[in-house]
Structures are given as structure tokens and as C-alpha cells.
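A reminder from the course coordinator: this example appears on the midterm review sheet, so study it carefully.

Given structure:
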């Protein structure tokens, strides 16, 4: 996962890890994942929204977007997706870190 890549980058500069590092790494991982998959989501949305199919299939729609709007046309509307992904993924990773710490402490209490 990209979150681990970003956490390793943070470890180089700060040996102690805290929840803020996890939040930022999760946010950056969410941004990376969203940016990588967004063109596919755009093509899927365009196909679903066609009243009369002018292009048949994923590849033809993909190439049609590039021809009409250029390569950056595949990333139209990415900003709202990134704005939503940053806090969501950050909180999700922090929740996972808290869960791991709680299960470690519960395991030591119960002798597991």
C-alpha cells in the first residue's frame, strides 16, 4: 500500500511515529490511489451517463475523451474527489492504528 511507502518516508525524518504521521500518510495514500484510478471512474461514469451510446466500450470511450479533450480531460473533476479522499483515508488509517494499539494492549492484559 502507498500508505506504507509514505510512512517509511516519514520514518527517515522522524524516528518516532504518531497519529499525525499516520493521518498524513493515509491522506497522501488516498490522494495517490484516487489520482491513479480516477480516469477509469470517469470513463465508467461517461458510459453510464450516455443516453444514446456514441462510443461502444471502455477503450473507445477512453480514446474518445483523449481525442476530444486531451489527456488532461481524463482528470476533469478530480479536485472534489481528492478533497473528499484526504480526510477520509487519513481517518481510516488512524482508526486502524488505534485498533492495532488497543488489540496489542488487550492481548497483554489477557496474556494472549
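Designed residues:
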Amino acid at each position: 500500500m502507498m500508505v506504507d511507502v509514505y510512512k517509511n518516508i516519514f520514518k527517515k525524518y522522524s524516528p518516532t511515529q504518531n497519529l499525525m504521521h499516520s493521518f498524513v500518510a493515509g491522506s497522501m495514500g488516498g490522494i495517490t490511489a484516487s489520482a491513479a484510478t480516477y480516469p477509469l471512474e470517469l470513463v465508467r461514469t461517461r458510459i453510464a451517463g450516455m443516453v444514446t451510446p456514441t462510443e461502444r466500450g471502455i477503450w473507445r470511450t477512453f480514446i474518445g475523451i483523449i481525442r476530444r479533450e486531451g489527456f488532461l480531460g481524463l482528470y476533469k473533476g478530480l479536485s472534489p474527489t481528492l478533497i473528499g479522499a484526504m480526510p477520509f483515508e487519513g481517518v481510516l488509517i488512524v482508526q486502524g492504528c488505534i485498533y492495532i494499539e488497543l488489540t496489542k494492549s488487550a492481548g497483554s492484559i489477557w496474556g494472549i
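The radius of gyration is 20 Å. Residues 78-110 form the longest helix (33 residues).
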